[in-house]
Design goal:
2 domains, 2% strand, globular, 9 helices, mainly alpha, 72% helix
């Protein structure tokens, strides 16, 4: 995962480096806010304050009030607590929980459909979930944040075989992860309140997110925010 510290060590720093660092900072702020600030108004205020700070640094560099190096240093200082090991641990813990949820959802889908939906969705959920469990567990055990499981590596190899890069593979993996989550949240499932007599009717089905507990839904949203942040980082990396 690309970090601001890594970016600040790049030679030939310029305004574009500062803009990318500012974008990374705002992405980190959104992730932290989604996980730690439950009040919507305060969360918006926090994100707005960080956005104003980041844009102010970019503006100072544009006007020559700061050098690119000074701008990057100011952004890195502001972002230090976002990259604190405790935050990385929280992120990996959520990734582990999310992976378990994906595997459970995939198994449940295969079972409920008698195997019919296993090929179209269940297998993908199980494989992505198992990969996320592996990566998050390894990161937690090893104290790192860059583990790559076999499924992600498969995406990377497929992208390279098609003439792309490892980053293209990572982007495809993360997009698929978000797509699977979105599908799981919006597909119709049997309502927990449904009472079957002969067969289920349309009124017995609700969207997936309505059948989830509040805690499960919050966790799913938090995991998606992290995935989106990582997707943004990969896209920015590919633009370098």
């Amino acid at each position: 995962m690309r970090t601001l510290e890594a970016g600040s060590q790049t030679s030939g720093q310029n305004l574009e480096d500062v803009r990318q660092a500012a974008a990374l900072l705002k992405g980190q702020a959104c992730t932290v806010a989604a996980r730690t600030i439950s009040d919507g108004i305060l969360r918006l205020q926090f994100n707005r304050d960080i956005a104003y700070f980041a844009q102010g640094i970019v503006s100072d560099v544009e006007r020559g009030l700061k050098t690119a190096e000074q701008g990057l240093a100011a952004i890195k200082e502001e972002s230090n607590w976002f990259s604190h090991p405790a935050m990385i641990k929280i992120e990996n813990s959520l990734g582990l929980v999310g992976g378990v949820g994906q595997v459970a959802a995939g198994v449940g889908l295969c079972y409920a459909s008698g195997g019919f939906l296993c090929v179209t969705g269940g297998a993908a959920l199980i494989s992505h979930g198992a990969n996320n469990i592996y990566e998050s567990s390894r990161n937690l055990i090893k104290g790192r944040s860059d583990s790559e499981g076999w499924v992600r590596q498969g995406y990377q190899e497929a992208a390279q075989a098609a003439g792309g890069t490892k980053t293209d593979g990572n982007v495809a993996y993360l997009v698929t992860d978000l797509t699977l989550s979105g599908w799981g949240l919006t597909r119709k499932v049997v309502s927990p309140e449904a009472r079957k007599l002969f067969r289920y009717i349309d009124e017995d089905f609700v969207r997936g997110f309505k059948a989830m507990t509040k805690q499960a839904l919050r966790t799913e949203i938090s995991v998606n925010v992290i995935t989106f942040k990582n997707l943004t980082l990969e896209i920015l990396k590919d633009d370098e």
